[in-house]
Amino acid sequence: MIWIMLELATLGFLYDERLHGYDLRKRIAALTGHVRPIADGTLYPLLKRMEAAGLLTRELQPGQVAAPRHVLSLTATGRQALLDRLREPDELFVTDENRWFTLLAFLRHLDDPAAQAAVLRRRLTFLTQPASFFWDGDRPMRAADFDDPFRQGLFTIATATSRTELKWLRETLADLDG
Amino acid sequence: MIWIMLELATLGFLYDERLHGYDLRKRIAALTGHVRPIADGTLYPLLKRMEAAGLLTRELQPGQVAAPRHVLSLTATGRQALLDRLREPDELFVTDENRWFTLLAFLRHLDDPAAQAAVLRRRLTFLTQPASFFWDGDRPMRAADFDDPFRQGLFTIATATSRTELKWLRETLADLDG
DNA sequence: AGAAGATACCTTGCTACCGAGGTATCAAAG
DNA sequence: CTTTGATACCTCGGTAGCAAGGTATCTTCT
Predict the structure, then answer these.
(1) Residue B1 — very low, low, confident or very high, per pLDDT cuts 50/70/90?
(2) B47, B33 Cβ separation under 8 angstroms
(3) What distance in Å separates the CA atoms of residue A33 and residue B66, rounded to the nearest whole number?
């Protein structure tokens, strides 16, 4: 299910400008690759699948710099596909931080403040759900329940992160709604 | 490469106490499942592979509650495997937040402050590397370069997160070293 | 008594994913 | 003038991962 994120990133980057595969690969690497590197044995087959699905076209551009490049550009179907996926993202994009960040990177393309706000609200709902990393039966365990510094750090980092993001979400929603 | 995280979580949870598969599954779901649910078609085959590798044993316990359970317990090899993986985690555990959290959850089992500190230092090194989500050629782009609120949010959240974690890392390292 | 829901585990088939390896061009360094 | 390194893309084989479906027990609700 990496492809679902790579596909969104590909649609997102190509929405603005035509790119060849290698360039796309480097942009994706900057966006998500420091966390989780992607093999080109993953990306190139995906591009072929996307071409087969009618989302993009490839055009051979003989070697200007080095080896010949395949310049990629989105079809009308591809452009619509990006907007559809941004408007109603798979649940994974809401819960998984890496995918959520990928979505945020391109959400501006969805040129409709109400739809953008709806997506942010899904993330808000997710983050405000009660959750814990560890349970003692039905009881959620908190940082104070542990005497090891690493699990305490886990809670410290997680709560700080979500607090920052909640603040940003609420401010941005106020702007989008107002 | 999900299995590498599931395997660590399994070794980690079983290090303390014997569990049956379903219970283990629920603990893993609490730790990482809110972000990324795991299918039992993923977990059960992994447990079999781990058994085949000599990391754990299963013992059939006839139905006390419902269907008969397979109680899992680590072998000596399994206990050692946890310590080895904690001591020298794969790079993915250092860079990917989900995997890093999984590692933090069990790092206390590595009963050696110097080795624990060494792991934290790897994370510190990673977080202090210069990084950006977007590049304009060689130039890393910053929040101020974007006028869309979503990419700005991306930077806001990412920097706040890493600041909190860096503070915790430095404090904890000072404790471990001192 | 029957249905529903939780517990508990399993298999099968499709496909995505990754590592490993290969091909080729061009520039810069030695 | 050869090597190194970057650019640029590709294929193949093995395996992991997932959805979908199945089986069975026990409790609780109706």
Answers:
(1) confident
(2) no
(3) 45
Which tens digits make up the pLDDT trace of A21-75?
A: 999 999 999 999 878 888 999 999 999 999 999 999 999 876 566 678 899 999 9
CA A45-A94-A106 angle, to 5 degrees, is 60
- pLDDT tens-digit readout, A72-115: 999 999 999 999 999 999 999 999 999 999 999 999 999 999 99
- The CA distance from B33 to B176, in Å, is 30
| Near-strand C residues (CB closer than 7 A) | A 1-4, 6, 36, 38-42, 45-46, 49, 63, 65-67; B 1, 20-23, 25, 40-41, 44-45, 47-48, 65-70
Backbone φ and ψ of B60, nearest 5°: -75, 130
Sequence-ordered strand ranges (E) for B62-175: 69-74, 135-136, 139-140
Q: How far apart are CA B51 and CA B6, in angstroms?
A: 14
CA-based R_g, chain B, Å: 20
User: Can you give the pLDDT at residue A115?
Assistant: 97
C1' (C30) to CA (A33) span, angstroms: 34
For chain A, report the end-to-end CA distance as a whole number of angstroms. Answer: 36
Q: Is B129 exposed, middle or buried (0-12, 13-18, 19+ CB in 10 A)?
A: exposed
Q: CB-based contacts of B20: which residues, under 8 Å, 6+ apart?
A: B61, B69, B70, B71, B72
The CA distance from B167 to A124, in Å, is 26
- The DSSP letter of residue A58 is E
Mutate to test the interface with A, among B94, B141, B150 (most CBs of A within 10 A): B150
A130 CA to D10 C1' in angstroms comes to: 48
Please count the other Cβ atoms lying within 10 Å of the Cβ belonging to residue B77: 11
Cα angle B162-A12-A30, degrees, rounded to a multiple of 5: 40
A132 contact residues in B (CB cutoff 8 A): 30
